[in-house]
Every structure is written in structure tokens, then in C-alpha cells.
Amino acid sequence: GGYVEIVSVSDSLSARGFSVLLLQKQEVKADKVTTEGQESEKPPKHHSHMTRRILIVDDEPDIGFTFKLALEENGFKERVDVYNDPSLALNDFKADLYDLLLLDIAMPRMDGFTFYEKIRKIDSKIRVFFMTAFGVNYEVLAGRYRTKDYENVLATILENGGGRFIRKPIDVFDLVKRVKAEL
């Protein structure tokens, strides 16, 4: 584990760079889902064990790439797709292709709730983890990311058990555990 930081300095002395998170492979297992102190069996799978697919939509490329690497190193090899533009993800989205959506709420072109509302019209079975750096304060989220039909979108998310919230930053191994528990 660790980080590699790469910085490039041009003739005008402006610096550009990025960091790469180095992951150490860990075996992460989750056979049960725990909800409010009660343990229950995992929910039924949308696809078979070998074909479970995950879609990550996050406008920050580093986050999407890091999550993809962590998931692929822990059992989801070649079954994770990442989009940094929700409009492109929506355009390419097909019903019954993905089992789980990891969705950033705060994106510049289309917020996560609007994206989810459109995706549910294509595939009503997909489950979602909303990712936010703002915490899980529903009143704050309602004020900050209001869609035309926000109340119905949030009610649908919560009623169908499709919506869970992940606070960013999240340890990648905690993310893998949550994804495995969900699938």
C-alpha cells in the first residue's frame, strides 16, 4: 500500500500532477448483511455470481479509477465500468447489465439523484450506493440537490431498498466489503 505522486513542471513553472494509490491485495469476504443489529441473508442476486457487474459514475477520475482497481483486485475482475460523465453513462446504459451502481451525488453536468431517476426508468432492479462527501443529512441533500421530483425519487430509493449512502472519503477495503455484502 501507499501512494506515488507524479508532478510535472513546465517552462512557465506551472506544476501539474496526480497521485496514484497503491493497493495491497486483501481478501474481503461478506456472507451476511447486517442492518440495525440484525443479521440477514444477502439479497437475491440480479445476475449469477460470475457475472455480477458494477457501474461507477463519479466526475472525479481518480476516485472512479481507485474504486475500480480495488474492486477488480478483490473478485470483480473485468466487471467494473467507470464513467466520469453521467450523460455518457446514461447514453451507454443498458437494462439488466449492471447489478450495482456506485453513484456520486455532486456532479457538475447532472446530479446523482437526477441520474438515478433516469436509470430507474431503464432498469428498475438496479441497486445503488450514493456517494457523498456531505454526509447523510437528507435535509441538506434535499436543499442542495433538488430535482423536479426529488421527494418521489428519494421515497422510491428508500422504499425499494435500492439506496444506500457512502460517505467519501471511504477506505477502499471498506468499500469492497460493502459491495460484497450487497451482492
Write a brief caption for the model:
It is built from six helices and nine strands, in the order E-E-E-E-E-H-E-H-E-H-E-H-H-E-H. The protein is α/β, with parallel strands linked by helices.
Would you give an account of this structure?
The structure is a single chain. This protein is α/β, with parallel strands linked by helices and 183 residues long. It has one domain: Rossmann fold (3-Layer(aba) Sandwich). Helix content is 32%, strand content 26%. A five-stranded parallel sheet has the order 6-5-7-8-9. A two-stranded antiparallel sheet has the order 1-2. It has a two-stranded antiparallel ribbon with strand order 3-4. Helix 1 (61-72) crosses helix 6 (172-182). Residues 24-49 have low confidence and may be disordered.
The helix content, as a percent range, equals 25-40%
Silhouette: globular
Low-confidence sequence ranges? 24-49
CATH superfamily: Response regulator
Cα separation of the termini: 26 Å
Structural descriptors:
globular; single chain; five-stranded parallel beta sheet; 183 residues; alpha/beta; 32% helix; Rossmann fold
